[in-house]
Amino acid sequence: MAETVTPSGTSSDAAGTLLTSLDPLLRTWLPRQRWFAGKGRPVSGFTPVAATELLPPDGRLGLYHLLLRVHQPPVPGAPPEPGDCYQLLIGVREALPPRLAPALIGHVADGPLAGRTVYEALYDPRPAEVVLEALRTRARVGGLRFERDPRQEIREGLVARLMTAEQSNSSVVYGDTFILKLLRRVVPGTNPDLEIPLALTREGCPRVPAPTAWLHAEVDADSYVLAVLQPFVSGAADGWELALRELAKGEDFAAEARSLGRATAEVHTALARALPTVTLGHAQLRPLVDGMTERLAAAVQAVPALRTYEEGLRSAYTALDAVAAEGRTWTAQRVHGDLHLGQCLRSPSGDWSLIDFEGEPARPLAERRMPQPPVRDIAGMLRSFDYAAHSASPPAHAWARACRAAYCSGYAEAAGRDPRSDPVLLRAYETDKAVYEAVYEARHRPDWLPVPLSAVRRLATSDPT
Question: Within 13 Å, how many C-alpha atoms sit on residue 213's CB side?
């Protein structure tokens, strides 16, 4: 750290006083953040989980790390919840320069920061570089533990810049060398976004950037994974943006889809070696089928447009249950859990990487870490091709079919088995994904509802090809 300051943890009393002074500002600011999951409901209060002073606010700049439990009124008909825990980095200045205006949280009226301005610190290179220096030196600050792989070097002086395209988390790039993913909504326990890349690194799998450093917090008996630093693939193209660009130009994407299928299979193969697998017979598969059926029933109530297809969609699940009842078994393993084109990067050399192994953040952590049939990831990617195709007008259905076929062929080349050779399992998982999408779009993006409904019509038949 550039300033000769010894960071220290903040006592619980001081944390409470600090939070009391920030409370009215955060109630307004938090719901406006893209990564805040509780939109549509007011914030009714906060409980401090941990507060750590990284730079004391006695000079031009202060920096606090906060873990806050956010309380909101329960969703109608749902039981009360303890509230989500969020990670915040709060910068403190006398006044903000114009370049930091988008980061403003507000002006503190009372408490230890009275008269100061507080803001989202990741917009400011200096606080972001404090975090990198703490990782480089493996600092211990209060309950925060900054760790790194001793075999990897972190150079000093890397300039930080915030990436503004993030949704559920925040990312900072350091000198086109590293990228730090800061998790926003955090839960105690082993986070797959660190666990799986570490396991793949031990297996020597090149399809996932190896973690360089990571941040976790010890709070009472709980451990939280808070951030992961990985090499930045300079010049890489996001799979979603690449697909849309090629589609807009009328270019074929099948070769890229095939290559991405091979990359997915390589990751699955390495994960099956690195982490335990389980065999799914009828008894083990039945809870999965029941879950799909329950989600469909709830979705039909939430999205009336699904009612016409309910019987056909349910047949996808009953068909899978019937095959399992006949004695068929499947292997389940750790998977990505939320795979789509936006979770893939193509380097300038043409190699594909998979990123963001956090899984669906709304799902419980234990569920995200459960072994699953690899087809769950495959179904997610197939649905992603459909979404890309609907960006064209009219929708490029033939383009999507070609990408889907090429992706499965590429997967088969690397895995030795084609996902299409088990059509009952693939249909069930793709149906479950499309039903989830229909609910999401109906609630958040009604204009997009025709995209999953197009798949629903196809999947509701006994032969969805």
Answer: 26
